[in-house]
Each structure stands twice: as structure tokens, then as C-alpha cells.
Design goal:
Chain lengths: ~350, ~180
């Protein structure tokens, strides 16, 4: 096995992207993701890649669009307020069927908010990142190792389904260090991109990458085709981790940083003899509906824990079709819930 | 100690993040599960800074240490802020050159180390953090002796190699204190 190294989440995300064949990074600084861009600034020139600090988030995301249209693996990263600015470009990418990876190391909001960890961009990432009918893949790592693994997967799936993919992290995961095994560089050529606007050399018809369709029927049929692809994504790409769920009466549902707090709380509950478990969504879109439906057959109560006022909880209720009560506990604004608080909520439900 | 759930706290610039990193690398070298989480933002620019380090043989849940079994307090505000969060049976190490107030708890072990004074008297100004880490190693034994030195070597980049022996000296003084 490869050697474990100690790395900050932000730096590990950057290195993983490089190993996944990303040679084009366009960003704009913002706490708490800046180490990612700084790492790219150091590494990219040595690899013959492009690191560019754009004049704004809008410019950065549209540079990603341009690079993706040319068929290369491109990435941008930001934190909550910056991702809001990038929403327009992401909608254009979705409308142009372009693969790219966007990283959001979330901080408290709304507005400029704060700089401490938050999960209040769940709705934004999964439902309303920009205008129009579209989805992007959303991956939610909970360890530095998983950040690394999911970046590679995000690039692969983005290419496969021709759609943008997001890593939805937060300030805690970005700033913390954990042991990590870095991946081997992997084969980018596996994904051919015959649609790329990369120069036809008079050998083929020129490609056009575009999101403007003025004829309603033409636009409708394109969107409908895209939604058929989304159905395939929903069928194939749901991911979740189940922890002590089999015999559990109360199952906590939490992703990312709050799932770590929840895991500690579940362990404490088990020490007290309480039958608690954890379902940790790894993909937020597609949401792991199947895992929740299966658990709903025997679980008596669900408790959703988030670092927000309650966003994913809606998707949990939809997934279990309100057949089982779903309650919510959250802290927001950059406050991280404690295992003790979550344990208290579990005890109320047992 | 089976699990180390340590909170290190002080002023920005006292080296709490660095000291935490040494403990984290010790965990890495011994193949343990670990996490290192700094506070970030305005604290780093002269206010209070703190850092959570967990070492365990089980996967780490929350990396944010809210009830430490070890608190290293390098200034009075940090002690006052966290003293009541320490688990019963836990350890509080404090720099008694900077903290004159008593610790009003009977259920924890308190080590008052004049770390800043020891460092300054030995020409190791700025290494009170490592004096305290030396003491921590004596009191808690969170890793093997050779691991501690290997961790230190990992944390000091080649271009600052001259700092290695100074850090070693500070650790030795802390251990002997």
C-alpha cells in the first residue's frame, strides 16, 4: 500500500485533482478554501498546467467553461459566497453538457456570512445553483481520504455523463489534517470527447458548444433528453454509508462534517445501550433514496443533523415518503454541533 | 493513554498549531487514526488560537475537541475559556510563567510548567510550546520516545534544519521540568 501522508483537506483536494488529470485550474481566493488555490499555484506551473487567479469568480467559472468546452479536465474552487457568483456559469455548463468539477468549501451565510464551517448550501448545490432545469452531481466527503477519492470519481462521472460535478465540503474538512493515501495518476484518455471544440483541422465537421436555443421545441427536447440521462444517474450513482443501521431504532442522517459529529453521538448512544445508527449520504444528488427507503422498513425514527437550519431534512422526508417520523437538529452560522447535543436529541427520540 | 483528545490553546504566534502538528505526526508514524483541526481566521492574527488533535485506534468522529482529556493552555484567556470543558480525570498543562491564577478543579491533574521562563533562560525564546510538549510526553506518554523525535523531524522543513536541535532541547527541558 502507498505511504500515508498528513495533509490538509484543501491541499488533498488539489493534489487529487492533479492526479485525476486536471491541468487547468481557475480560481479566486476566499477563506476557508484558499490553501487549495495556493497549492495549485505552486504545482501547476511545474506540470505544464494552467493556474490562473481570475479577476473575479465570474471570470474564473467562465474560464472553466471554456477549458471544458475544449475537452480538458478543468476545475474551480470557492466558498459559499463565491459559489453563488459561479452559479451562472455552472448553469451555462449544464446547458452546454460540459463536464467540470466545482469545489465548495462551505462557510456560514447568507451574504458574506462568516468564515467558519457550515452546510447551509445544500439547497443551492442540489436544487438551485443557477437558473433553468438542470442538476449537477454533488459529492459530500466526510474525511480527507474521501475528499481525495471523490475528486477522482467526480471527474470521471462528470466526463461520463457530460455534466458538472461538485464536491460539497466545508471549512472543517478543508482546514483539518488527516492521514491520506494519495491516488496513482489515472488515465484521462479513457474518456473520449468527440464533441469538444478543440480544433477540427479540416478533418471533421466543426463542433459547437452552446446553451442558446431560441426555438422552444428544440430547447424542450434537449432538456428532456438531459433529464433521461439524469434518470440513469439516479439509478446508478446513489452512494451512502450505513453505520450500525441493521438493528437500529433511531437512525441519524447526516453528511460531511456533521456526519462525523453524528458518528460520535451514535457511538455514545450505543455505549448507553441505545439502538442508534447512522446513514451518511455520500452523493447528495443523486440523493441515496434507495438506502433510506430500505431503512425506513424497520427504523422507528429518523433524525437529520445538519450545520444549517434544516435543508437536507426535506429530502429525507421525501425519500421515506413520510412513513416514518423525521426530526431535525442543526446549528448554523459556523457553529459546529457537539456529539453531546446530538446524543441528547437521540435520547429524546428513543 | 488510549485515546488522546487534546486541545491546545494560546495566543497566535505561540506555536499551538505547530505543537499540535508534532502530536499528529507522532500518530501518523505509529499508524494510528488521527485528526488535526486548527482554528482559522482572525484568531491567527494576534488573538487566541487553538487546535484540536485526536489520536485513537478507532476512526475519529468529530475532529473538534469539545471535552478534551488533555488541555494545554498557553495563556490565561485560554485556561479560563476551556478549564471547565476538560473531562474528569483529564490533564491540564499550563504555562505558569504567563498564567498566575489557580485551577479550581479537584478532578483533573494539573501541571504548572513555567514554560516561557524555562525557554527564555535557555536561549529558546519562542519554544515554550515544545517545553510543554516535553512535559506532556512525560505525563501522558502519547507516543514512543523515538516516535516523538521522528515526528519533530517531519515537522521541521529542511530549510529550517537549525531549529531541530533547539526544539529537541526544549522538549528535553520540558521532560525534566
Amino acid at each position: 500500500m502507498a505511504e500515508k501522508v498528513l495533509m490538509k483537506g484543501n491541499e488533498a483536494l488539489a493534489e487529487a485533482a492533479i492526479q485525476a488529470g486536471c491541468r487547468h485550474f481557475f480560481g479566486y481566493p476566499i477563506t476557508p478554501q484558499t490553501e487549495l488555490a495556493a497549492y495549485m499555484a505552486k504545482r501547476m506551473p511545474k506540470l505544464g498546467g494552467t493556474y490562473l487567479q481570475a479577476e473575479s469568480e465570474l471570470a474564473a467559472v467562465n474560464m472553466v467553461l471554456g477549458a471544458a468546452a475544449a475537452g480538458v479536465r478543468a476545475m474551480t474552487s470557492s466558498s459559499s459566497p463565491g459559489v453563488s457568483l459561479k452559479g451562472e456559469g455552472i448553469s451555462y455548463m449544464a446547458g452546454s453538457d460540459l463536464p467540470a468539477v466545482i469545489i465548495n468549501v462551505q462557510r456560514g451565510g447568507p451574504g458574506l456570512g462568516g468564515i467558519q464551517p457550515s452546510q447551509a448550501d445544500y439547497w443551492q448545490a442540489t436544487k438551485a445553483l443557477g437558473h433553468g432545469d438542470f442538476q449537477i452531481l454533488v459529492f459530500a466527503p466526510s474525511t480527507v481520504q474521501e475528499m481525495v477519492d471523490l475528486v477522482a470519481l467526480a471527474f470521471d462521472r462528470a466526463d461520463e455523463y457530460r455534466m458538472p460535478a461538485m464536491i460539497l465540503a466545508d471549512g472543517m474538512l478543508g482546514q483539518m489534517m488527516e492521514p491520506v493515501v494519495l491516488p496513482e495518476a489515472h488515465d484521462v484518455a479513457a474518456h473520449e470527447k468527440p464533441w469538444a471544440a478543440s480544433g477540427h483541422k479540416n478533418e471533421r465537421k466543426h463542433n459547437i458548444v452552446n446553451s442558446l436555443y431560441l426555438t422552444p421545441n428544440a430547447l424542450e427536447s434537449l432538456v428532456v433528453e438531459r433529464y433521461k440521462r439524469y434518470e440513469i444517474v439516479k439509478a446508478n450513482e446513489q452512494r451512502a454509508e450505513e453505520y450500525l443501521v441493521d438493528d437500529a431504532d433511531v437512525v441519524v442522517v447526516a453528511y460531511g462534517a456533521s456526519s462525523r459529529v453524528a458518528r460520535s453521538a451514535v457511538n455514545k448512544a450505543r455505549e448507553k445501550g441505545l439502538k442508534a445508527g447512522l446513514i451518511r449520504p455520500i452523493t447528495l444528488w443523486p440523493f441515496p433514496v434507495d438506502t433510506l427507503k430500505k431503512a425506513a422498513r424497520h427504523v422507528k425514527q429518523f433524525l437529520t443533523v445538519e450545520m444549517s437550519m434544516g435543508q437536507m431534512v426535506d429530502d429525507v422526508r421525501l425519500a421515506v415518503e413520510c412513513k416514518v417520523p423525521v426530526s431535525f437538529y442543526g446549528r448554523t452560522g459556523g457553529v459546529i454541533p457537539t456529539p453531546k447535543e446530538v446524543l441528547g436529541e437521540i435520547e429524546k427520540l428513543v | 493513554m488510549k485515546d488522546l483528545n487534546m486541545l491546545l490553546a494560546g495566543f497566535g504566534g505561540q506555536g499551538v498549531l505547530f505543537a499540535g502538528k508534532v502530536a499528529a505526526y507522532a500518530g501518523l508514524i505509529e499508524g494510528r487514526e488521527l485528526s488535526w483541526l486548527p482554528s482559522y481566521g482572525p484568531e491567527m492574527r494576534g488573538g487566541t488560537a487553538n487546535c484540536s488533535v485526536c489520536l485513537s485506534d478507532e476512526p475519529i468522529g468529530s475532529p473538534l475537541v469539545t471535552n478534551p482529556n488533555v488541555l494545554i493552555a498557553m495563556n490565561r484567556p485560554s485556561l479560563e475559556k476551556f478549564v471547565n470543558d476538560v473531562e474528569p480525570g483529564g490533564v491540564i498543562l499550563l504555562d505558569s510563567s504567563l498564567i498566575e491564577i489557580p485551577v479550581e478543579r479537584e478532578d483533573v491533574t494539573v501541571c504548572r510548567v513555567p514554560a516561557s521562563k524555562i525557554a527564555e533562560e535557555n536561549g529558546l525564546s519562542g519554544l515554550a510550546n515544545m517545553v510543554l510538549m516535553g512535559k506532556l510526553f512525560e505525563v501522558v506518554g502519547f507516543c514512543k520516545e523515538e516516535t516523538l523525535d521522528a515526528a519533530l523531524q517531519k515537522c521541521i522543513p529542511a530549510r529550517k534544519a537549525a531549529m531541530l536541535d533547539l526544539n529537541r532541547k526544549a522538549i528535553a527541558l520540558g521532560r525534566a521540568s
